[in-house]
Amino acid sequence: MRLSGLSIFALLLVAAPAALAQVKSGSDFLSPEMHRQQDDEARNPGFLWTLQGEELFSRRSGDAPACLSCHAEPKQSLRGAATHYPMVDAASGKLLNLEGRIEQCRSERQKQPAFGYESPELLGLTAYVASLSRGLRLAVATEGAAKPYLEAGKAFYERRQGQLNLSCAQCHDDLVGARLRGDTISHGVGTGYPAYRLEWNGVGSLHRRLRACSLGVRATQFDYGAPEYLALELYLAARAKGLAIEAPGLRR
Amino acid sequence: MATFNARITMPAEAKAGEIVEVRVLARHPMDRGGQVDAEGRIVPRKILNRLTVTYAGEPVFRYDMHTGVAANPFVSFTTRAVETGDLVFEWREDGGATFTRTARLVVT
Amino acid sequence: MSSLISPASGRSEPAFSRRELIAAGTAGLALATLPGGLRAATPTPLSELIARVTEGATPARGGIEFDIPQLVENGNSVDVAIRVESPMTAGDHVRWIHVIAEKNPFPDVARFHLWPRNGRAEVAATLRFATSQKVAVVAALSRGGYAMSDADIVVTLSACIDGG
Fold first, then answer.
1. Averaged over C63-76, what is the pLDDT?
2. Which of A42, A106, B39, C142 lies deepest, with the highest CB count within 10 Å?
3. Helical packing angle, A206-216 and A227-239, nearest 10°
C-alpha cells in the first residue's frame, strides 16, 4: 500500500524527468555561432531596433512630452523595470505587459494615438526598454492581484489545443531538446523577446511568436495583446523566474 | 515610413600603419521581390544595392549587393590606419535614395 | 567592366545587351520586371557563371580561405568570411571578390571591391541562400588573373520559400 504508492511515484519520476528539469533560456538552444552573435552588439540586428527605440524615447510628438521628460536618465531609472512585466496595473486592475505599459503611457500621459503591435515604433521602444534590463533576472509578482491571471496562464499552457491537439507543456516540458524541422525544441521561455528572428528577417514581439505557435498546432490565433496571451505571458515569466532578460534576443 | 539606421563598430583610435577592422550593420528589409506581406500583397523588390566607404576622401571599400544579401545586412572589411580622418559610409537604395553615416578614426 | 548582374538563365546570350543590363543594374531597376522567359528552366552551370565574371579566364584554385557553414541553420542569414592572400600593395592587390550561389534565383550574390588601403583582402558578410548548393568565390588580382574557392552548403530551411 505505502510501498506500491512509493514505487508508482518513483516510476512517474523516471517517466517524466523533463518536467522536473531546470527551465533554460532559449539562448541555450542556439548554436555557439548564433549565441555569440546574439551577445555581440555590433552583430545582433536587434540592436538596430533598440537604436530606433532610443531615438523615439527622446523625441517629442507635437506638444506631448517625450518619454525622456518623465523618465530622465533611462539607463539608470528604467534599469530593472522590464523584469517586473507582465504586472497588474494598480489603477485599472488590468494585466499589462511592457507593450501595454508603453501604449498606456502614450495614450494616457502623452495623449497620442497608440502605435499598435508590430509597428516599428512599438517594437523599437519595447526592445529598447527591455534592453535596459538585459542581463537582469525576471522577477514578476505572482501573488495577490496577479494570482488569477497566473492561474489562467497556467491552465492555457497545460490545455491541449488546435487540430494537432497539443498543449504547450507537451513540447516545452516533455520534448525539450528534441528536433522539430531545423530547430531544437526549447523550454519556450520567451526571455529573448522582442527578438530578431531569422525567420522574420526582423524583430517581433512575444505575441507574434505565440501566434506562430498557435498556428503551428492549428489552434485559434488570438489577437496581439489578447488576454489569453497576456495571461500566458505572465505564466511564462513566472516559469522563467531567475532567468535573465535577453532582449533583443536572436532566434531562428 | 521605413527607418534607416546603422551601427558602425570600429576603434576610435589606432596607431599609424595598424590594420583595423570595420564592422557595419545596416537596418533594411532587403525585400528581394515576390514575397507576400500580411495583407496578401506581393512586396516589390527594394534593396540597398551599394555601400561605398571613403576614408579621408579616398575610396576604401565598395560592396555591391544583390537580392542574395541578407536582410539587415552585416559586412566587415579592414583598413590601414593611414591618417586621422572620417570614414564616410554611403548606402544607395533601389530607386536612388541614399543614406550616409560618418565615423572618425584618430591615428596616432 | 564586367556585368554585375547575370540573370539565372540557361541561355548563353542574355536577351538584353550588356549595356542595357548594366544600365538597368545601376539604375536599380528590379530584374523582377524582366519577362518570365529569362528565368531559368535549367540553371546556368557554375563554370559558366564564373566565366562571366572572369571574362573567360580560368581562375586558379588556392590562396583563398572561404568560411561558410556546411549546414546552414536558416537560409535567410548565413555568415560568410573570405580572406585572399595578398600583400595589398599598389602593385599587387585584390581588386574585388565576387560571390556566386549557383542555385539562387539570382546567382550573383555580391561583390566586394577593395583597395590597397584595406591592408588585408579580408571581408565578412551575411548572405541569403535559397537551397543546398555550391557557393563559389572569385577574386580578381591587380597583377592580372583570378583566384577562386568554393564550398558545398546544405540549407534545410530555405530563405526563398514563403511562409513560417
1. 93
2. A106
3. 100
The answer regarding whether domain A47-131 maps to CATH 2.40.40.20 reads: no
pLDDT (0 to 100) of residue C41: 59
Asked if A5-40+139-251 and A47-131 have one fold, the answer is yes
Cell, residue C29: 531597376
Coil vs helix vs strand at C22:
helix
pLDDT at A226: 97
Q: Tell me the one-letter amino acid at B95.
A: G
- Cβ-based contacts of C111 with chain B (< 8 Å): 63-64
- Contact of C100 with C138, CB cutoff 8 Å: yes
Output helix, strand, coil percentages for chain B, rounded to the nearest 5: 0, 60, 40
**Does A34 lie at the interface with C, CB-CB under 8 angstroms?**
yes
Half-sphere exposure of A170 (CA within 13 A, CB side): 10
Does B29 contact chain C (CB < 8 Å)?
no
B31 close contact with C: CB closer than 8 A: no
Q: Is the CB of residue A201 less than 8 Å away from at least one CB of chain C?
A: yes
Q: Of the candidates A41, A43, A52, which has its C-beta nearest B5's C-beta?
A: A52
Q: Which of C42, C45, C1, C41 is nearest to C23 (CA)?
A: C1
* pLDDT in the model for residue B3: 78
Q: Which of A163-177, B8-22, B50-64, C15-29 has the lowest mean pLDDT?
A: C15-29
Q: Is the ipTM of this complex over 0.90?
A: yes
Nearest to B61 by CA among C78, C95, C143: C95
CB contact under 8 A, A198 and C73: yes
E strands of chain C, at which residues? 60-61, 64-67, 71-72, 78-84, 94-101, 108-114, 121-127, 133-141, 146-155
Supply the pLDDT for residue A198: 92
Asked if C156 lies within 8 A of A182 by C-beta distance, the reply is yes
**Closest of C95, C100, C84 to residue C137, by C-alpha:** C100
Which CATH number is correct for A5-40+139-251, 1.25.40.10, 3.40.1180.10, 1.10.760.10, 3.60.15.10? 1.10.760.10
Chain B residue with the nearest C-alpha to that of C6: B66
CB pairs under 8 A between A and C: 25
Q: Which amino acid is at A181?
A: R
Residue A17 CB neighbours (<10 A): 10
CA distance A3 to C114: 77
pLDDT, tens only, A67-105: 999 999 999 999 999 999 999 999 999 999 999 999 999
